[in-house]
Amino acid sequence: MQNSEGNNQYHHNSDSEVVGDRTSYSGPLNKRAGKKSARFNIPETSSRNSSADADDYVEITLDVREDSVAVHSVKTAGGGEVEDPELALLARGLEKKSSFGSSVVRNASSRIKQVSQELKRLASLTRRPHPPGRFDRTKSAAAHALKGLKFISKTDGGAAWAGVEKRFNDLTAATNGLLPRSLFGECIGMNKESKEFAGELFDALARRRNISGGSITKAHLKEFWDQISDQSFDCRLQTFFDMVDKDADGRITEEEVKEIITLSASANKLSNIQKQADEYARLIMEELDPNELGYIMIENLEMLLLQGPSQSIRVGGESRNLSKMLSEKLKPTQANIVQRKYRDFNYFVQDNWQRVWVMALWIGVMAGLFTYKYIQYKNRAVFGVMGHCVCMAKGAAETLKLNMAIILLPVCRNTITWLRNKTRLGVAVPFDDNLNFHKVIAVAIALAVGIHAISHLACDFPRILNASEEAYEPMERFFGEDQPSSYWWFLKGWAGVTGIIMVVLMAIAFTLASPWFRRNRVNLPKPLDKLTGFNAFWYSHHLFVIVYTLLVIHGIKIYLTHDWYKKTTWMYLAAPVILYAGERLIRAFRSSIKAVKILKVAVYPGNVLTLHMSKPQGFKYKSGQYIFVNCAAVSPFEWHPFSITSAPKDDYVSVHIRTLGDWTRQLKSVFSEVCQPPPTGKSGLLRADFLQGENNPNFPKVLIDGPYGAPTQDYKDYDVVLLVGLGIGATPMISVVKDIVNNMKAIDEEENSLENGEMTSLPSNASPLTPMPKKKPVGQSGRHNNFKTSRAYFYWVTREQGSFDWFKGVMNEVAEMDYKGVIEMHNYCTSVYEEGDARSALITMLQSLNHAKNGVDVVSGTRVKSHFAKPNWRTVYKRIALNHPNSRVGVFYCGAPPPVKELRQLASDFSHKTNTKFEFHKENF
Fold first, then answer.
1. Per-residue pLDDT for 229 more than 90?
2. Strand partners, 686
3. What dihedral do alpha carbons 748, 753, 756, 760 form, nearest 10°?
4. How many Cα atoms within 13 Å fall on the side-chain side of residue 673?
5. Fewer CB near the terminus (10 Å): N or C of the chain?
6. Which residues are CB-contacts of 734 (< 8 A; sequence separation ≥ 6)?
7. Distance between alpha carbon 612 and the CA centroid of its chain, in Å?
8. 807 to each of 423, 730, 735, how far by Cα in Å?
9. CA-based angle 44:48:49, to the nearest 5?
């Protein structure tokens, strides 16, 4: 609790300021012979005026910790410093980490509690602002400052020092026990990117102890470690000040500020801040040196650090309240293993019932077909020679025919998009999992091929070759009167040749489609490196044309079936192949007539190319959908999918393409040739714009096909949405963010026009009290009746500072247009050390100052304030659960796979254990 205003009004009436662990008492300090003690006289009523002389009263500020008490300051009632040797002795005694210090804490605790209760009563009577010119050393502000000055990530006492000591011994094995400056960062556990920062920290600690020579002993290292691991604010502040104050004169000049900004920016990989170090150094000097003395003191730096943002404090308290609210529900319940397994199974079915019924149906059909063929061949004459092997081979072949047919359905994108948009099948069918189902079917095909081939080659054919004349007699009608004498007889026929070729082609396609090859995770020597990457995957997958042709031939030329109506392979394949062929024809026809004009091209940091294209006639799409892009200058045959980043109401279509593979690299290279460095005020590293009536760049020809459905397009079905984009995965979320703002704006305009229309339609003789017709609720008016979303949370996590340039314009536009606060945007830059690390402390200061003065974030360059390191997803879910009880929250993620498991699990946990339901959707990326 904070109530410094009490010290102004009732300063002589024993008021106290209780601020968490740091408590300020006012009262007479009595002196007794032979014993040093501080007695704090607390009167029975706070309203009674005291006639005691001001000099008889002092204000002592204590820094109370778990194992120590430190006297921060001792002042008279008038605010002056007290010079008293006995008080100094008292202060030293309190600062000792001993049993005496602990006893003082215990003895003082009752007084603290008494004063706290009185202060709470006073705080309820009056609240006045802090007097100007005083530092707010409350718990909240000091805690914020402490978080910003942590030099090491872990300070777990002796265990941490043991690790440092071990590294010291390893690093100094060849240097006679002396640790050089260059290895200091590695020794204390900092990474290589912080080597320069660690060097400056070394210099500051060495200057304080007058150590020269660039090397230290283990004893010196222990002193250094004790200082940087000290948890007190004053110690951390002094260490940070010493780092900046390189000439150790107790003053920080603008040049020294610039150097530490450059150092911090380098450690956090913030190249833009490095370039603007001069500007930001001036900003800090303007803030902390208003009298233009040319330097700042440690007190000025303390003031800046203690200016903890009120929002952070509020969020922290909110988080604590929510943690308390959810602690019981999220706490594991005591149950036996059967109950736990049943509960987990029940949760699994609730979360995955769509997938469960589809998979159950598919597996059931396969099991039925396999059993049917197995029994059929067990009752035939060939069973006497070939045995159960032929039953296994034919059962696997039947499931293979089924799967070769249905594997085409998940990639019929036009059909799936139509079913998603025009029917209600999406309620029961998990269209979002189409590619996952495609992969599962591929695995089933591989297993069936293995069973079929092994059963024939390792069992059936040897049995025929070794059969007696009597046993072979029933086989003559299938294999001829002359009994085969070698394997070659089987392999040289149509069935053998087609079967072998199909297995080889399937193995190639299956291998090159694996993540290791498709995503270039395998490093192969030249020229074998051409077998990795998207191009190899794309071309190898088109071998399916040959595979399907051979499969039909194989099914016609099989040995054991001669009746045409029993050769069912072509029957399985006919409908899916026709459907898929029709899809490809539609794509070719539609893309050829949808010629697009390139309106703008820009190349951004992080190897991102953005294309703004004219919208073809009749081209309609939803936010979250994607299109296929073809560029004949790169490859006339390849089509690659990219999420649409423009909003449906924009008069253009845009995509942002990151160069992750060979095709995208070539595309960027082709467009970079027609681009130039942008003029002042324009974004991008390179840029080219279509200008009406002027000489325009000779842009390569681009075709688009689509749009196609994706999970994110269903965001409008939810009251609240949580949009999470990782790196370039933010592309579909950007379109959604723009669309939400546009929809809210359109709803407002429609409601305003409705109100204006109602006002003009009133009769001229109507009374002012004539009731107005009821207004439709938001989201139920006009064409926006399917728009449910009233709140959106957007989290964009990226590794590089330059990535924020990709959507800088969109961020600023949303920040300006979203006057109702519908969208809460959070940018996270993971290259910056977490908030609480000394390496990012100055970046945090700059961020607060620049955002307060100019409204622009120094990291992202937008009006949206950035966070550092990675989000705490559990806290994100907790906040949403608290803010939106009894709501359905759609969680949409697009990006790399690592966060998927955590986000999905948290959605499940909070859905089952709170009254807020989270539904997780993942974009295939």
1. no
2. 603
3. -160
4. 9
5. N
6. 645, 725, 807, 810
7. 26
8. 34, 9, 11
9. 135
Whether 891 contacts 919, CB under 8 Å? yes
Q: Strands, E, within 224-367: which ranges?
A: 252-253, 295-296
The DSSP call for residue 810 is: H
Structure tokens at 646: 């423009």
**pLDDT grade for 923, boundaries at 50, 70 and 90:** confident
Question: What is the mean predicted confidence (pLDDT) over 638-657?
Answer: 90
Which pLDDT band, with edges at 50, 70 and 90, does 694 fall under? low
- The DSSP secondary-structure symbol of 699 reads P
At residue 51, the pLDDT reads 40
**C-alpha span between 235 and 245 (Å, rounded):** 15
Six token digits for residue 733 = 């979320």
Q: Pairing state of beta strands 823-829 and 791-798?
A: parallel
SS3 letters across 435-490: HHHHHHHHHHHHHHHHHHHHHHHHHHHHHHHHCCHHHHHHHHHHHCCCCCCCHHHH
Per the CB < 8 A criterion, the answer to whether 204 and 247 are in contact is no
Instruction: Give the C-alpha separation, 768 to 754, whole Å.
Output: 18
Residue 416 has pLDDT above 60, yes or no: yes
State the Cα–Cα distance between residues 840 and 856, nearest whole angstrom: 18
* Number of residues that this document lists for the chain: 925
Contact 788, 716 (CB under 8 A): yes
Query: Is the N-terminal amide bond of 527 cis, ω within 30° of 0?
Result: yes
What pLDDT, in 10s, does the model give residues 741-788? 888 777 777 777 776 665 444 444 443 333 444 444 444 444 445 667
Do residues 823 and 856 touch, judged by C-beta distance below 8 A? Answer: no
- Amino acid letter, residue 823: I
CA-nearest of 680, 730, 732 to 708 is 732
703 CB-near residues (< 8 Å, 6+ apart): 591, 592, 594, 595, 596, 629, 630, 631, 632
Q: 331 pLDDT exceeds 80?
A: no
HSE value, Cβ hemisphere, 13 Å, CA-based, for 757 = 9
394: burial class by Cβ within 10 Å (0-12, 13-18, 19+)?
A: buried
d(CA 545, CA 861): 50
Band (pLDDT 50/70/90 cuts) for residue 877 is very high
Sign for the pseudo-dihedral over CA of 109, 114, 115, 121? positive
Q: Are the CB atoms for 330 and 909 separated by under 8 Å?
A: yes
* H or E element in which residue 893 lies: strand 888-894
What 441-444 contacts at long range (C-beta under 8 Å, 24+ apart), as own/partner pairs, is 441/403, 441/406, 441/407, 441/410, 442/407, 442/510, 442/513, 444/366, 444/399, 444/403
Which amino acid makes up residue 667?
L
Cα separation, 210 vs 494, whole angstroms: 89
pLDDT tens per residue, range 335-357:
578 877 777 787 788 778 888 99
Least confident segment among 563-567, 584-588, 595-599, 695-699: 695-699
What would the pLDDT profile of 794-851 be if each residue is shown by its tens digit?
A: 999 988 888 888 888 888 888 877 777 788 889 888 877 766 566 677 777 777 777 7
403 contacts 574 by C-beta, under 8 angstroms: no
Q: Are 766 and 799 in contact (CB under 8 A)?
A: no
Helix (H, G, I), strand (E, B) or coil at 625: coil
How far CA 323 is from CA of 147, 316, 722, 889, in Å, comes to: 21, 10, 20, 19
Contact 179, 221 (CB under 8 A): yes
**DSSP for residue 783:** G
- 0.90 surpassed by pTM: no
Among 589, 647, 633, which Cα is nearest to 817's?
A: 647
CA 544 to chain centre: 37
